[in-house]
């Protein structure tokens, strides 16, 4: 992992450069002081020498890639360089901590933060830049000794290299005088293919042929169309290109055909010569590019051709432009490129590339059977077939993996060997012999150096693990895998690296979201094997694997704890089915105890598969004291109740995650962690956050509990580097957070939830916030309470006067880049003009809950609104033209897709009847709760999903015209005794869910719903119904539970699937709970 080392050395050298000027002045002043201070002068000089040493090592590492370390001598040298680099980074980090500590103390004295609570308010809102504070910090004796030892080790190693002649040998190798071991390479491809040997690519072949024969241009040249097939190594890109290239329709469509295997050497001269030879089927002797391009131009002029460029890696736009230039003189030309990188495809074309997916399981099985059985004409044993299918499943749809392991199984044709292959924890030796992993290694070899350590980092996680993208970014930050470049923010740099890994098909985005609704990433199993292969023994993943011994009625642990002395990055993973079976915390503590005393650990994380899992653990005080160089600690989902005070001794800690734990308090020492960048304690029941949070001067991400937030202490405004903050909670006391502290948090991005606005008493404090200048805030929540609790019958809320709340909400006008807005517990009688102002062109989601206005804001003016929810509108008597803006026209609500109205308990105006049809033509989902006086929603031509919760008018369905209605949910409607489905609105109904209607006795017209496919009736005890008599015959599946004398009856119903396989079914199930 030379990339990690180089990054660390660069950080060390740059940090020393920034620290040593003040150190130099310290040394200068010391030279005129007492003789007892002279050792500190020498210590500063040693630090300067260490800086020069780090720059020399960095130069060596930038000149040599870790993939060139082929023999033992080179590997040993790299290992020694790593140890020196890591130790130097640690010692510089500790000295920087001492400097930060001195600056924080000086700043606190300037701001009066070292006195009583009265002093804290004297300089409220003032921030002092720490870089402007000059302090003289002597080098401690311990650091001085360690710096000297590090330099002596480096000099000793350098002398040994020169004595043994290693430097000359390694330099000669890099200059090409000694040929290195052959690197991994991909064999060249050709256009020939045996179609009978290909499985599962028929649809992909047809899709690509359709593109190739299309008359629509795909590039900036009307006569040159470029198409690209993108996918990871071994997915079958070349195979699909061969199938399309050799199809009769393609051959008859083009006058010329050519196939060139490009690979990683994008030599324009050589490639032009190959293209000419491929078109003419004759060799070309020209050597000058000009002659070659003129010849190619003449060959294609006035003709149509198809050219396949297989396995392209080039990301240089100028090289591609040079290659394609002579091809533009054809009459009609098409290029089909295969590549692993979306970035390459973007350079070559403008239309989206064709992304090739994995083979389905059936096609993989067919391929395996052909490889293993057909050629040998063997009788297939049933037990071997079962094992074979399990082996195929482990290939996860990668054709090259199936071929590689199939070849191994054909050679080792016996059940015992196949079982060994199946049960092998490491497939790498088997697959490598089949030339699968070397093909994937090409992708790694071709990565830029800055991406390699980020890719290897994924070896810390188990296979099939869903990675939270933002969490990965924060861990990369804390471990210093990548440093700032080109003035970009660290988070932006790392998001760019995620994008690059995605474009190179090394990781994939999934459709699943985590508990924070963030996008998740996943890595193919074979790429995970590659990550493990390229990661050194510094990365260790330990599994809590339990076996149940019924004779002793206890759990027995099985660990592999080898190489603990070299581990710098440690993951402890619970298996998917044993987290709840871990008795006490002994198994986990045994692993942690094994690493007790380790002075080289940089990361320790506990991983659970389920977000609801909780692993019992206690953190011994003395253990943290030995992990003095730790950068990241992740104990999320651990059942910890307390952190030891010794947490404050981890001077280099940058990442601390205790989310979803049983933690009640944070130790005061937590705020001595001056290097901390990320602090996560979401979903914790913290009762109080201690004072001193303003000392976390490097904090960039604070994930506190936004569901049940506790008040933040005063000092949050001093965290001027903060970029993400889940909940900003305003208090009443002098030691509590004040709204004015938001003023200096100018780098906040993404989501901001402000709680406790009722506690704001000074409007000048609110004006200082100036939300309009915070242009990176995309989701904003303004909550006048400190929680989400409210009483729907509460008409006189506590807090500031209504006039003040109106003034406050007017002041808190956000930036126009806002995408989502939520306002809770607002007591004013009207909304300010900015709520619904058409200048908010990006605003797509609005939620208004628990408010006392009689009129709704003009949300109809928002051009991008797609989701609207109105909840607990206590005093709304009607919804009229003002709801849709001054100029109420059919263009209003042009993007609206979903509207959820809850607790609209007063009457509605007649204007609503005439306006809704025109302004809600795009509405597809409507949910109403306790809207008792709403008797009609008239015509909603696109409405397909309707949810009725609680009380609703019995004529609602009969009086409305809903021609596209497909799904209806009636839930928790305790007062209705009958449900009339004899109306035209439900004639096309496909799904019906009735839940928790305690008084419901009859459903009229149910058997006439001839389009109904899915039906669920649950918890309606007064309803006596017979499926065979009352249900329509067209039902695909139904469920009746807890109705009359029926306990449970179903047909083809999948338990837990909900009403429908769509978003509404999921939403309704969640709301019902």
Account of the protein in words:
Helices cover 34% and strands 17% of the residues. The chain is an alpha/beta fold and 1073 residues long. The protein has a 14-stranded mixed beta sheet with strand order 18-19-20-21-22-23-24-25-26-27-29-31-32-33, with helices on one face. Helix 1 (2-31) crosses helix 3 and helix 15 (382-394) runs parallel beside helix 17 (415-423). It is globular and about 85 Å long. The C terminus is likely disordered.
- E-strand count: 33
Please mark out the parts with pLDDT under 50 across 5 or more consecutive residues, or reply none.
21-37, 66-70, 116-123, 169-184, 428-435, 546-561, 577-581, 901-919, 1054-1073
Q: In angstroms, what is the radius of gyration?
A: 34 Å
Q: Roughly how much helix do the residues carry, as a percent range?
A: 25-40%
Note the overall shape. globular
- Physical arrangement of strands within the biggest beta sheet: 18-19-20-21-22-23-24-25-26-27-29-31-32-33
Discrete helix count:
31
- Distance between termini? 49 Å
Mean pLDDT: 76
Structural class: alpha/beta
Strand percentage, roughly? 15-25%
Q: How is the biggest beta sheet arranged?
A: 14 strands, mixed
SSE topology:
Blueprint: H1 2-31, H2 38-63, H3 72-111, H4 117-120, H5 141-164, H6 166-175, H7 202-212, E1 224-230, H8 237-245, H9 248-253, E2 256-263, H10 268-280, H11 289-300, E3 304-312, H12 317-324, E4 332-339, H13 342-348, E5 354-355, H14 361-374, H15 382-394, H16 399-411, H17 415-423, H18 428-433, H19 437-445, H20 452-457, E6 467-468, H21 469-479, H22 490-503, E7 508-513, E8 519-522, H23 525-534, E9 539-549, E10 554-558, E11 569-574, H24 586-594, E12 603-607, H25 621-626, E13 632-634, E14 655-657, E15 678-680, E16 701-703, E17 724-725, E18 727-729, E19 750-755, H26 763-769, E20 777-783, H27 802-811, E21 820-824, E22 845-851, E23 867-873, E24 898-902, H28 911-919, E25 925-931, E26 945-952, H29 956-959, E27 967-971, E28 978-980, E29 991-995, E30 1002-1004, E31 1014-1020, H30 1027-1030, E32 1037-1043, E33 1046-1051, H31 1063-1072
Parallel strand pairs: 1-4, 1-5, 2-3, 3-4, 9-11, 11-12, 12-13, 13-14, 14-15, 15-16, 16-17, 18-19, 19-20, 20-21, 21-22, 22-23, 23-24, 24-25, 25-26, 26-27, 27-29, 28-30, 29-31, 31-32
Antiparallel strand pairs: 6-8, 7-8, 9-10, 32-33
Helix pairs in contact: 1-2, 1-3, 2-3, 2-5, 3-5, 7-8, 10-11, 10-12, 14-15, 14-16, 15-17, 19-23, 21-22
């Amino acid at each position: 992992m030379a990339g990690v080392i180089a990054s660390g050395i660069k950080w060390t050298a740059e940090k020393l450069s920034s620290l040593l000027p003040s150190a130099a002045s310290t040394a200068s002043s010391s030279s005129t002081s007492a003789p007892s201070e002279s050792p500190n002068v020498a210590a500063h000089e040693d630090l300067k020498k260490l800086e020069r040493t780090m720059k020399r090592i960095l130069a060596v590492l930038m000149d040599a890639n870790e993939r060139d370390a082929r023999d033992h001598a080179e590997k040993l040298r790299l290992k020694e360089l790593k140890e020196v680099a890591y130790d130097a980074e640690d010692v510089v980090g500790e000295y920087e901590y001492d400097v930060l500590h001195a600056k924080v103390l000086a700043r606190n004295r300037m701001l009066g933060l070292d006195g009583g609570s009265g002093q804290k308010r004297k300089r409220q809102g003032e921030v002092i830049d720490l870089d402007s504070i000059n302090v003289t910090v002597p080098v401690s004796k311990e650091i001085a000794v360690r710096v000297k030892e590090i330099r002596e080790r480096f000099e000793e190693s350098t002398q040994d290299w020169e004595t043994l002649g290693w430097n000359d040998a390694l330099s000669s190798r890099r200059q090409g005088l000694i040929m290195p071991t052959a690197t991994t390479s991909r064999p060249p491809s050709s256009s020939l293919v045996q179609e009978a040997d290909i499985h599962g690519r028929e649809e992909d072949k047809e899709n690509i042929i359709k593109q190739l024969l299309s008359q629509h241009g795909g590039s900036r040249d009307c006569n040159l169309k470029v198409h690209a097939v993108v996918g990871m190594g071994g997915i079958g890109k070349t195979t699909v290109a061969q199938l399309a290239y050799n199809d009769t329709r393609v051959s008859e469509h083009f006058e010329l055909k050519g196939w060139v295997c490009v690979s990683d050497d994008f030599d324009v001269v050589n490639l032009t010569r190959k293209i000419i030879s491929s078109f003419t089927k004759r060799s070309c002797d020209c050597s000058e590019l000009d002659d070659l391009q003129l010849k190619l131009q003449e060959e294609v002029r006035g003709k149509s051709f198809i050219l396949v460029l297989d396995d392209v890696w080039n990301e240089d736009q100028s090289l591609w432009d040079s290659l394609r230039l002579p091809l533009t003189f054809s009459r009609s030309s098409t290029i089909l490129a295969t590549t692993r990188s979306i970035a390459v495809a973007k350079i070559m074309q403008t239309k989206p590339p064709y992304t090739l997916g994995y083979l389905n399981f059936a096609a993989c099985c067919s391929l395996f059977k052909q490889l293993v059985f057909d050629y040998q004409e063997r009788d297939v044993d049933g037990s071997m077939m079962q094992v074979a299918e399990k082996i195929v499943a482990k290939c996860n749809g990668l054709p090259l993996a199936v071929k590689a392991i199939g070849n191994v199984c054909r050679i080792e044709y016996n059940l015992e060997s196949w079982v060994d292959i199946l049960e092998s924890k490491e497939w790498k030796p088997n697959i490598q012999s089949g030339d699968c992993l070397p093909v994937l290694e090409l992708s790694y070899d071709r990565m830029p150096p800055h991406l390699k350590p980020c890719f290897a980092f994924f070896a810390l996680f188990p296979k099939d693990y869903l990675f939270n993208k933002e969490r990965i970014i924060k861990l990369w930050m804390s471990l210093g895998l990548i440093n700032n470049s080109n003035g970009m923010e660290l988070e932006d740099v790392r998001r760019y690296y995620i994008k690059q890994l995605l474009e190179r098909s090394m990781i994939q985005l999934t459709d699943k979201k985590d508990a924070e609704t963030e996008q998740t990433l996943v890595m193919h199993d074979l790429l995970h094997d590659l990550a493990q292969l390229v990661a050194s023994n510094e990365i260790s993943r330990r599994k809590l694997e339990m076996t149940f011994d019924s004779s002793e009625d206890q759990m027995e642990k099985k660990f592999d704890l080898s190489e603990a002395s070299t581990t710098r990055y440690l993951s402890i993973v619970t298996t998917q089915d044993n987290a709840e079976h871990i008795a006490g915390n002994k198994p986990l503590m045994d692993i942690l105890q094994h690493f007790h005393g380790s002075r080289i650990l940089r990361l320790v994380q506990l991983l659970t598969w389920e977000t609801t899992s909780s692993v019992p653990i206690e953190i011994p005080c003395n253990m943290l004291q030995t992990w003095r160089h730790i950068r990241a600690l992740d104990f999320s989902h651990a059942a910890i109740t307390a952190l030891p005070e010794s947490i404050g001794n981890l001077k280099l800690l940058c990442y601390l995650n205790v989310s979803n734990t049983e933690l009640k308090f944070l130790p005061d020492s937590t705020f001595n962690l001056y290097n901390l960048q990320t602090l996560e304690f979401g979903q914790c029941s913290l009762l109080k956050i201690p004072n001193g949070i303003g000392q976390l001067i490097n904090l960039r991400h604070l994930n506190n509990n936004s569901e049940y937030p506790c008040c933040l202490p005063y000092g949050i405004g001093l965290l001027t580097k903060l970029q993400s903050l889940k909940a900003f909670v305003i208090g009443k006391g002098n030691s509590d957070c004040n709204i004015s502290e938001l003023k200096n948090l100018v780098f906040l991005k993404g989501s901001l939830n402000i709680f406790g606005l009722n506690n704001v008493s000074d409007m000048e404090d609110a004006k200082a916030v100036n939300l309009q200048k915070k242009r990176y805030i995309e989701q904003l929540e303004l909550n006048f309470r400190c929680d989400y609790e409210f009483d729907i019958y509460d008409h006189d809320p506590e807090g500031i006067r209504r006039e003040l709340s109106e003034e406050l909400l007017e002041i808190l006008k956000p930036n126009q880049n806002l995408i989502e807005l939520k306002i809770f517990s607002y007591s004013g009688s009207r909304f300010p003009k900015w709520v619904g102002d058409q200048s908010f062109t990006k605003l797509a989601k609005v939620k208004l809950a628990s408010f006392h206005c009689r009129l709704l804001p003009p949300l109809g003016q928002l051009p991008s609104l797609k989701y609207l929810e109105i909840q607990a509108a206590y005093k709304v008597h009607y919804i009229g033209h003002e709801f849709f803006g001054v100029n109420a026209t059919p263009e209003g609500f042009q993007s609206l897709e979903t509207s959820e109205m809850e607790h609209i308990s007063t009457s509605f105006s007649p204007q609503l009847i005439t306006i809704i049809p025109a302004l809600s033509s795009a509405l597809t989902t409507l949910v109403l709760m306790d809207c008792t006086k709403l008797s009609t929603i008239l015509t909603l031509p696109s409405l397909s999903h309707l949810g009725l919760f609680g009380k609703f008018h019995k004529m609602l369905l009969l009086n409305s015209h809903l021609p596209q209605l497909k799904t209806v949910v009636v839930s928790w409607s305790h007062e209705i005794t009958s449900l009339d489905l004899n109306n035209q609105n439900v004639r096309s109904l496909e799904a019906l869910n009735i839940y928790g209607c305690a008084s419901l006795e009859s459903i009229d017209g149910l058997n006439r719903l001839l389009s109904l496919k899915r039906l669920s009736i649950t918890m309606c005890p007064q309803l006596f119904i017979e499926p065979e008599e009352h249900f329509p015959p067209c039902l695909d599946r139904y469920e009746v539970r807890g109705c009359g004398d029926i306990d449970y009856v179903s047909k083809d119903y999948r338990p837990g699937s909900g009403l429908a396989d769509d978003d509404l079914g999921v939403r309704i199930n969640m709301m019902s709970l």
